[in-house]
Amino acid sequence: MGIMLFIDFLKVNVFDVLDIVLVTLLFYLLYRLIRGSAALNIFFGLVLLYLIWKLVVLFRMEVLSELLGQFISVGIIALIIVFQPEIRRFLLFIGSKNPFKKANFRKWTERTKYQNIPAIDIIVKACYRMSASQTGALIILARENNLEEYIQTGEIINAQTSEELIKTIFFKNTPLHDGALIINQQTMVAARCILPISQQENIPSSIGLRHRSAIGITELTDCVAIVVSEQTGSVSYCMEGNMTHDVSNERLKSFLEKLYLY
Question: In the chain, what are the domains?
Answer without folding.
Answer: 2-110 (no CATH), 115-261 (3.40.1700.10)
